[in-house]
Amino acid sequence: MTGPARAAAHHGTAPGAAPPVLRLHDLTWSVGGATIVDGIDMAVVQGEFLAVIGPNGAGKTSMFNLVSGLTRPTRGRIELDGVDITREPPHRRAARGLGRTFQTSSVFTDMTVAENVGLAEQIRAGGSLRLWRRARTSDAAVRPMLDLVRLGHRAATPAGDLSHGDKRKLELALLLARDPRLILLDEPMAGVSAAEVPELTAVIRDVHREQQRTVLMVEHHMDVLLDMADRLAVLHHGSLLALDRPDRAMADHEVQAAYLGDAP
Ligand SMILES: Nc1ncnc2c1ncn2[C@@H]1O[C@H](COP(=O)(O)OP(=O)(O)OP(=O)(O)O)[C@@H](O)[C@H]1O
């Protein structure tokens, strides 16, 4: 096998095929003398749902911070659609189609759900905030988005009154208003009541399958992941321990040892 063919096979793409949506090459981040993300190589293809798992402190959020541009790698390269974005700031990556769930603080709590989504859509469309009027957001423009995230019945509710699960759905809607091709979700189920997990899971599944977006998700709820993910990336001490179908990754003896706490 030639060099490029071997590299393509390693990353699961055929020679000549479109480049992966995301490719990480030797991605490494050290801080304060500790290596937090350690030489990660992986590729994520269009439409794939990749779950990133690993014990607490494994480096999952740090890896997301590198991919979204919040931190700069010490070593290695990040490619989006074959373009080297390693040195690009977060807003440039966002303009290329990389989206990460908004922090809760980005939801305007005194505005209704529909107003929040209307504002996000207007910003995406390049509208002036000075011309934005609340009345406009009650129109049909935001309906499809609210229905997609199953918040249609909450359109007139102030965002501050939403449950944790519904707030996560709203954050997802605000992200989707920017029409990202690659979505990074960092623990979307955190703080969400057990009763709300199934519906939030269904919303994320719809966003992935119906909208054919590429999704990277860090999550601790294994039952949620095993059902949704095409592949699992298992991190341990910043290194990629396994990258495989969920059943195979979980059967890996090194992965099992990592979760039991006795991996090297
Ligand atoms: N800015 C920083 N400076 C120093 N250490 C850091 C910094 N950011 C993260 N760390 C350390 O890096 C390690 C990995 O943290 P990270 O949050 O990426 O792990 P994680 O896998 O997302 O964990 P969890 O599942 O608990 O959220 C931790 O030990 C953390 O204390």
From TrEMBL:
GO molecular function: ATP binding; ATP hydrolysis activity
Cross-referenced CDD domains: ABC_Mj1267_LivG_branched (cd03219)
Domain ABC transporter, first and last residues per copy: 22-262
Keywords assigned: ATP-binding, Nucleotide-binding, Transport
GO cellular component, one term: plasma membrane
Entry-linked PANTHER family: ABC TRANSPORTER ATP-BINDING PROTEIN (PTHR45772:SF3), CONSERVED COMPONENT OF ABC TRANSPORTER FOR NATURAL AMINO ACIDS-RELATED (PTHR45772)
Protein's UniProt name: Branched-chain amino acid transport system ATP-binding protein
Organism annotation: Spinactinospora alkalitolerans
